[in-house]
Input
Amino acid sequence: MLPAFEWKKNKLVMIDQRKLPLKEIFIEYDSYDGVARAIETMVVRGAPAIGVTAAFGVALGVLRLKTAAGIDNAFERIYARLERTRPTARNLFWALERMRRTFDANKTRKLADIKRAVVAEAKAIEEEDVMTNEAIGRNGRDLIPEGATVLTHCNAGELATAGFGTAVGVIRAAHEQGKRIRVFADETRPFLQGARLTCWELDRRGIPVVLITDNMAGWFMNKGEIQVAVVGADRIARNGDTANKIGTYSVAVLAKEHGIPFYVAAPMSTVDASLATGEEIPIEERNGREVREAGGRCLTLPHIAVRNPAFDVTPAKYITGIITEKGVFRPPYRFTP
Ligand code: MRU
Output
């Protein structure tokens, strides 16, 4: 299986997720600004993957410094550039804050030592993400019943993380237990992460997958064809309100109406302890072209006004449980570190 990105000879190589599944194209990055642009333009996406690649972006920025003179200012420039790429993913800020702590702890050492320390920290964040996701899979797999059809939205799989995935990781762990399950993947307009990425991943893993358009989920729930829903998260407030890909809220409301359990799977690094409720979560609004066009072709009149919020917030009352590496949290949510 291809990882979404790989640190190779002091460069970051990413698979271009905009081209999947039709083309497997790899792009090599050797500057922090290049990594920042890759995150903004969705070469790489998914909250944990954004966090890990931003950490490598910091490492690249520091690696390319020629002198330790003015290193504080240089670090702030690198940090500020990566920080303004995607506002909703909590993991981005979490990973950047970790990189800052490492930089601060090492900045009075020789430049070569600072470089070694930041690269080592980015690699540690990457390795921990894989282990965290495997733990999420183990903690969540028993929530997927034998024979179930599982609905998922967007892509919270291997491509969205350093490996294994969160929501798709739970599905994969249930599949690896030998359960006969299948997945209904919402196509996930407008960027089509479900159709392009989740289907590609599941197909390669031999997990049966059926692609549906976003507006079909309610009907299949009504017909009794979906037993459980599991999705990822970009940011979780203290009360359990969860920001995830636009359309997640509709799935959660529909699931509640039909008595179907609705789970969120995410690492603890997605929990933003500074936010009391989801009302405070910043929601990214992306370029309207993503809505007006599909596959580079205009679907409407080019001047038609559109809205394109990339995420919505699902209130905690619709969430059956939040699956993390620390276990499954249930309402009322109290996230202990
Ligand atoms: O805009 P994206 O593709 O970055 O949005 C991705 C999602 O909403 C995922 O569900 C979330 O980041 C969790 S990925 C493990």
Q: What stands out?
A: The mean pLDDT is 97. The pocket of MRU is lined by residues 45-48, 154, 156, 160-161, 166, 193, 232-234, 244-245, 310 (CB under 6 Å).
